[in-house]
Amino acid sequence: MIIRSRPPAVGEFGWIWIALVLLVGVSALVAPSAIGLASVYSMLPFASVLVLLAIGQTLVVQQRGLDMSVAAIVTIAGLLVAKFSVLTGSPMVGVVLTCAVCGAAGILNGLLVARIGISPIVATLATGALYFGVARILSGGSAMPIPPSLQALAQARLLGAPVLFYVAAVLVVVVSLVLRSTVVGRRFIAVGSNIAAARAQGTRTAAYQIGSYAVAGVCYAIAGIALAGFIGYATPTAGSSYLLPSIAAVVVGGTPFTGGKGSVVATAGAAMFMTLLDQLVLSLGASPAMQLLAQAVAIIIAVSIRRLPNPAKLLGRHRRLA
Amino acid sequence: MPQDIRLRVVGVSKRFPGVWALRHVSFDVLAGEVHGLVGENGAGKSTLMGIASGALAPDEGVVSVNGVDVSADPDLVRARGLAIVRQEPALMPDLSVAENIFLGVGAERRPRPSEMNLWAQRLLGEWDPDTNIDAAERVDLMNAQQRFIIEIVKALAGDPTVLVLDEPTEHLMSDDVGRLFDRIRALTRRGVGVVYISHRIREVRSIADRVTVLREGQSQGTHDIASLTEKDIVALIVGKAVNHEFPEKQPPQSGGRDRLEVRGLSGEGFSEVSLSVRPGEILGLAGMDGQGKREFVAGLVGLTAGRGQIVLDGTAIRPGSSSHTAAAGLQYLSGSRHRDGMFAELSVRENFSYRTLRNIARAGVIRREAETAAAEAAVRSFDVKTPGVEAPIGALSGGNQQKVLIAGILAADPRVVIVDEPTQGVDIGARVFIYQAIVEAARRGISFIVVSSDAGELAGLCHRVAVFSRGHIVGELAGAEVSESAIISAVLTSGSDRRRQGGTESLGHRVLKWFAGNWAPLATVATIILALGLYAGISNEFYLTSRSIGGMLALVAALAMVACGQQALMLIGGIDLSVGPLMGLTTVVMSFFFVKDMPLEMQLAGWVALFGVAIAVGLLNWALVDPLGMHPMMATLATFMVLQSVSLVLRPTPAGMIDFEFLDAVNTRWAFLPVAALLALAVALALDAALFRSGLGIKLRGFGSRADAARVAGINPRLMRLLAYVGCSVLAVAAGVMMIGQVGVGDAMSGNDYTLASIAAAVVGGASLFGGRGSFLGAFLGALLITQINVVTTFLSLTDGWRSVLLGVMIVTAVAAYSRARKMVVAA
After folding, report:
1. Which residue among B69, B448, B600, B606 is buried most deeply as judged by most CB within 10 Å?
2. Is residue B252 domain-resident?
């Protein structure tokens, strides 16, 4: 029998939107310039790059993994697209090849984790060093220009908003829909939730684990191309500052390190939140040091708030039947 | 007289959701007696022992050991002299045999750590003078019977006054059973009370003085063993009440060919098993745990590797692939729902439909309305009590969980269903429902293989029952022979002697074993360091000079120190991302106290400040991880940002030149060797000595190796974590002080690269992120190797890029080799 009447709960992935609304409200009151058109325009492209990265990181975390090679793959993607575009004479072919190579880098990560059994942190730490090395060798240590057509695309605007924002939004929607409503997505979540149970029910679990790193690699590739295109050139250190923010976005968005359920939409919201938080701290005239402190506090609050007993859940416990 | 009663259980009750595990159970164990405790699986024996050991708290009633109430206090239970030999030994796999026995006895009985191996070997020798167990070897290298003997020796070493043996002959060979019985008799002569839990009635009759029978959580009384025949005991165990819970058996369809045929299937734990099942037939698999029935099922459904033939409706299925097996129509439901039966945090709907996703999807997209409708229909027809199909299945009672899972399997239109313990943790109402569902499905032509340790269940449900022993089918009951007592007697009388495993070790295995050991990483890394140094020396004559080596070692000190800190955390399965910024903060703090012409008292204040920072950061990390329960990665990531921010507020840009005299002191050399590096080496060696030779170090490793077994040994988890986090921060601050020799100013960002480098150094040196492994010397050598790679590449005129590639490849190779070897050696 089904006992209905459940009070609506915020849920683990709902908090970020409440926080985002609060933050926008606070910004409007104390530092309207932080959410002014000009600063939103300057913020959105970088927020979009972070969203793209954080999508990949979320997928890996849903498989109980962690991808420390994200910074290296972002970097190498920028350099590769510059190189491939020159070699093949076509930026589009360059983009496709870059995504393929970064996907392959992700597959290597996944193989080390799922087949060899190295813990994700160590495996991706090592491959991160490897990919960074390749990036240095490729570039010879100097920046490489991005073809003008790609630059134009990455810097273009559509209906007032940067194209990169649309790219990120489309990817969030696609990944979210696939996870939510397809067979592959359901199995993906199940493998992350309990790999032994998924295997016992006939799922090829290694494919899903490796797949998460591979798709993540492609997400990083798109982010790397977007970043290099927006700046106009690729450098051998472009991605270095993105590792911690990508993890922070996942954490603040509410996807747990224990795997299984997760939300790329919440992660995207968290990426926006973190970027806006930085902006607000800056507009208040505080030093960049305070940005870090604000982020740390956001992480700690994000984790603690989900540990608070949910009033709806408490009620539910009384009603639970043996 | 009360002092003659060793263990007293009075009116103990325990209720789990949906079932009474124990109801008003009382009995006494007298000094000098062997008290048998018998009953079927699920009769409440293990719950009762959990309560007696203090691991579980009773809902009602009192447990006292030697006259003292010890309810729910494992430490007091131990201190009062009760020792338990568990069927699944509570041993810490990464510790040596000797260390396990050492931690297993009370503190006052422990020898000096330096004498531990001799002491433990003597104890093992008392058990069996010809023992094949080496006290110095790690427990993960031991097989099941050796582990069980270690568990017994550990319990006896504590000189207990009450000894509880849980199914002690399950893992023992006959000569060891003899030894055990001799030992039990010697103990009882000294006035020890022994509780002997077993399925095997014959054994209990031969050793026990009195026996208490449990059935469905209730005591059937305590009896003098002499007053009961074997038959009487079986009657008490089974009960006279006729079971009404089973629906009438329907005869399986006759004629036609077999639905499933297994020919000569062999694998880990079973060999040459052949059986067949007809459409609509329910086949039971009986046998003691560990005799192959569950191992066979794992092989049959493709969870473990197998050789042999599996033919389903005339089509062969490849063994060893669970996806092929499931796709062919062979559905498996595990006996351990939480481990591999369900997705606890996913909803009832998602758990129900997992096996039928293809049917409810169109072009790979799940039709949500159809899915919800199907789940709701199943909930109704199986009478599942749930707040709704969107409730997480983990919040339901065991019986309702099982109903959802079985409904999901039946919806998948299977040809053969393999169910392990269909009613484990299921209340009586749901049990009847599940039996009906199985029989009903069989009537529709679905074949079942039911694995159960409940003979009554097999008798009530199955058309045929195959009995496993030593990995083979040794008997089969069919038709009218299928009765509870016939199954029990077939299981109990089937030989269960174990053959001694192994013999001489192959060379390959010895090599593997070495690679899995504690010293392999040290030797491997040292060899690579020397080889790389030699190669660089040959390629560039300036490399092997005291100047270049001294310069390299100067760089090693800081990394080695912080790697030791990281290693301390990895020993307990933790990680600290905040060490890098902490090193940066150290330079910032120093830049305020150790500048030119600073009075001595200010320098002293500086040292106090540094120490305070170390303790405070360690406490912060610990507080976030332990009381607040944050994942170590998240917690130390937050600390990372906090520290970075504090440093940047104090020193927005690098500033505050450190006094040159102080820098000179940090950079002092002894001959050409930097003193800081020698100091780091000394610290690593001292920490290793503490780790392997002191009680505290052994406890730390034990906790990291297996937390629940460590808890049983009385190790406080909070204290261990506190020690590791604070220790790590102290070492990171020390590393920061050494780093100042290169940095020279207060620089907030100067330490950031050390976070990842310290993790790399520790894992190259043999640390495992799963805890329990590695050494501080390993971390030192790991740091040395990483620094050497950085230096050597410049001497070999390799670019930065190649250096980074080399580092990555080396980490992967080293870690893959260690983890591969550890896995294989445990499997062997």
Report:
1. B448
2. no
Report the distance separating Cα B331 and Cα B419, nearest Å: 8
Q: Which residues of B touch A2 (CB under 8 A)?
A: 376, 379-380, 386-389
CA distance A152 to chain B (A): 30
Distance separating alpha carbons of residues B51 and B60, to the nearest angstrom: 11
Instruction: Please tell me whether residues B714 and B772 are part of one structural domain.
Output: yes
pLDDT digits (tens, 9 = 90+) for A214-238: 999 999 999 999 999 999 999 888 8
Q: Is residue B323 within 8 angstroms of chain A, CB to CB?
A: yes
Confidence of residue A188 (pLDDT cuts 50, 70, 90): very high
Range of the domain at B122: 2-238
Q: What is the CATH number of the domain that holds A180?
A: 1.10.3470
Look at B652 and A321 and tell me if their CB atoms are within 8 Å: no
**Amino acid B495: pLDDT:** 53
For residues B434 and B549, membership in a common domain is answered with no
B1 and chain A in contact, CB less than 8 A: no
**Residue B445 and residue B260 in contact, taking contact as beta carbons nearer than 8 Å:** no
Cα B520 from chain centre = 23
Q: Which of B556, B548, B555, B551 is nearest to B525 (CA)?
A: B556
Interface probe with B: pick from A199, A201, A303, most Cβ of B within 10 Å: A201
Pair (B603, B681) in one structural domain: yes
| Whether residue B620 is found in the same domain as residue B631 | yes
Contact B364 A122 (CB under 8 A): no
Report pLDDT for B42: 65
**Could you count the other beta carbons within 10 Å of the beta carbon of residue B358?**
11
Please state the rounded mean pLDDT for residues B719-748: 94
How many domains is chain B built from? 4
Q: Which residue range is the domain that position A242 belongs to? A: 32-305
> What pairing do the DSSP bridges indicate for beta strands B210-215 and B193-197?
unpaired
CA distance A35 to chain B (A): 24
Domain assignment of residue A285, yes or no = yes
Q: Which two tokens stand for residue B380?
A: 């109704």
Chain A CA closest to residue B822: A117
Predicted local confidence at residue B19, as pLDDT: 65
Q: Between B343, B649, B816, which is nearest A193 by CB?
A: B343
pLDDT surpassing 60 at residue B674: yes
From the list A1, A134, A316, the residue facing B805 with the nearest CB is A134
% residues pLDDT > 90 (chain B): 44
Is there a domain that residue B250 lies in? no
Q: DSSP per residue over A162-224, as a string?
A: EHHHHHHHHHHHHHHHHHHHBHHHHHHHHHHH-HHHHHHTT--HHHHHHHHHHHHHHHHHHHH
The span from the CA of B490 to the CA of B474, in Å, is 9
The per-residue pLDDT for range B600-643, each reduced to its tens digit, is: 888 899 999 999 999 999 999 999 998 888 888 889 999 999 99
Higher-pLDDT residue of B734 and A240 is B734
What is the percentage of chain A residues whose pLDDT exceeds 70?
A: 92
ipTM score: 0.88
Query: How many beta-carbon contacts under 8 Å exist across A and B?
Result: 244
Is residue B499 over pLDDT 50? no
B590 and B478, same structural domain?
no
**Beta carbons of A125 and B640 less than 8 Å apart:** no
Count how many domains chain A has.
1
- What is the domain-level CATH number for residue B93? 3.40.50.300
In a domain, B243, yes or no: no
Tell me what the pLDDT averaged over chain A comes to: 87
**B702 touches B99 (CB < 8 A):** yes
Rounded to the nearest angstrom, the minimum Cα separation between A214 and chain B is 18
CB neighbour list of residue A202: distance below 8 Å, 6 or more residues apart: B322, B323, B325, B326, B327, B331, B355
Contact B245, B428 (CB under 8 A): yes
* Nearest beta carbon to residue A203 from set B323, B759, B812: B323
**A93 inside domain:** yes
Residues B602 and B716 in one domain: yes
